[in-house]
Amino acid sequence: SLGALACDLEPGIILASHPNILEKLKLCPALTGTQQDALNALLLSGDTAYGDPSSWDLQTLQDLGPLVLALNQTTLSLVAEAAREDFRRSIAAAYISQGRSQREKSLMLLRALAAASAASQPRLQRSADRCQYEPITASNIEDIIFLFPEELDLCLSNDVLVENLEAVLELPMTSQASLVLKKKVDEFFQGSGIPDKQLRRLGTLSRLYTEQEISQWQVTSSDTLSALLSDSGGPWSDSQVQQLLSRYLALGGSLTGPLLQEIGGKRLCNLQEEQIKQIPAAAIRTAGQLDISSCSQTKKDQLYRKAREAFASLASTPGSYYCQIQPYLGGAPAEDLKNLANAGVAINMDLGTFLALNPEELQKLSVTDVKHLLGENLPELKEHEHEPLVVSWVQQQSQQELDCVLDIGLQGGRPQPTGTGGSAATCTATVTTPATTVTTPANVTSMATVPSPHPSTSVTVPTTTALSSHSTPQPSTVPPRTPTPSTPSPTPPGTPPHPGGPTVPPVPTAPPAVTSAAPCSTHQAPTTDRATS
User: What are the Pro residues biased-composition ranges (predicted)?
Assistant: First the structure.
């Protein structure tokens, strides 16, 4: 009934307990050294369900489960050599499909079994210059796992290793054995260096090379760079990747979309500005979503300009254009952000993207710009009103505009100048009837029809219904351009404030119908052409 509490028992109690305590100890994530000694003593007594270690076979070793990790050399040396070898082979066969933590345990077992074999069956005196066992060939390549590093160096020729490199790297290897393999590969290509096509075969060995060694590689093809960057070979350090990319670009290589995916946004930000200049716009178009939030502002600006060129063919469909260029908007100038805001489609920018905009450019956006950019996400701006970026932007805006246009309770804007009560009255009049639009009072000749700022009639809601038909719109002084069949009306849904103008800026008398773009998917597929976009 102790269950997992058995893991806290003292060694003396383990020895004095019923042998079935071994089944309880299987529940323990780890045993202390003294607990492991007690476990081995109990097994060596032969009075357990597993019998004497000399009678164990492959099935017995497998039945021990996690307890096999606690077996010492004394216990393992009593197990028949045939049983140990069968167990080693079963571990090696399962190694490929195991996760990282399980692989580490498998390597521990293989080392323990190899040590037990060496201790229980002493072989001929080792020679400093020749292998004492059967040499490793393609037919017995899996026997590598039973050799100590120094034996591996003697029994595996450089030629056999290079010819069977992929098969060797599929086998479980200790870090010491991996260093031996790296040394032998370097010896094989000594003088000429590792060729491009051979570099892509290095797999996990590639991670053992220093930045200085990588700087000598002849990595000239995108296929080789992609193979080296693959996660299948294990993790790289940032400095190794930086050196690898620098070497590739120095040898005339070009970064493609798939390569940018392999590199990732974080490491892309580690490139030098001169290297980023070498990235073609076509690569950005096919790279998919890249997180460049860690880039410097200068590099964000560089990447945005490339993205703008890459997705220029989508400019007539603002929703699709926004979804593709969204990861790069941290480098967008205010002019481009205003164009997005006034595109006639509510793009519903999320607050994460909004807060990642260039702080200097964000301060240039008007209240109406921000309203149209955020769309249905506008209420979330209130939740972030204490963000430094939002605070500084609010302080530059008219409080009356914040109240009348946004109407989400933001405070801290510039106070209303004295003697402009008429404008305040206009704001009040426009909100008294949410479902209609009230025309400009006669004594304010510069004001046109003002739409209600409430959500039910906001230009950013997903509706194609024009603003209220109950009002008599004044004729526009600037006739709208005739839109092309594939381009939404370029007439902006609102006019941003300008120096010296009224507190509440004039609004076009007949704003274009504004629809909401379809939401961007979490993982945008790379754009290959306009049709697929």
Answer: 476-511
Amino acid at residue number 171: L
Q: Is 296 helix (H, G, I), strand (E, B) or coil?
A: coil
Other beta carbons less than 10 A from residue 241's beta carbon: 23
The share of the chain scoring above pLDDT 70, in percent, equals 75
In the chain, CATH 1.20.970.40 sits at 125-190
Q: What global pTM score does this model have? A: 0.61
Q: Helices 334-341 and 367-374, interaxial angle, to 10°? A: 60
Q: Are residues 280 and 254 in contact, defined by beta-carbon separation less than 8 angstroms?
A: yes
Rounded CA-CA distance 136/154 in Å is 9
Q: Residue 51's pLDDT band (boundaries 50, 70, 90)?
A: very high
What's the pLDDT score for residue 81?
85
Contacts 24+ apart (CB under 8 A), 189-196: 193/217, 193/218, 194/218, 196/220, 196/221, 196/224
Interatomic CA distance for residues 240 and 205, integer angstroms: 13
pLDDT tens digits along 199-219 = 999 999 999 999 999 999 999
The dihedral formed by the CA atoms of 496, 501, 504 and 506, expressed in degrees to the nearest 10: -70
SS3 398: strand
Neighbour-count burial for 8-38, b at 16+ CB within 10 Å, e otherwise: ebebeebeebeeebbebbeebeebeeebbbb
Closest CA to 377 of 517, 507, 504, 489: 517
pLDDT in tens, 475-506: 333 334 434 444 444 434 444 444 444 443 44
Buried/exposed code over 196-233 (b: 16+ C-beta within 10 A; e: otherwise): bebbbbbbebbbbbeeeebeebbbbbbebbbbbbeeeb
Phi, psi of 382 (to 5 degrees): -60, -35
d(CA 533, CA 315): 11
524 confidence band (pLDDT: 50, 70, 90): very low
Percent of the chain predicted with pLDDT > 90: 47
Spatial neighbors of 41 by CB under 8 A, at least 6 apart, are 15
Q: Which two structure tokens, joined as six digits, stand for 85?
A: 């070898």
Mean pLDDT of the chain: 79
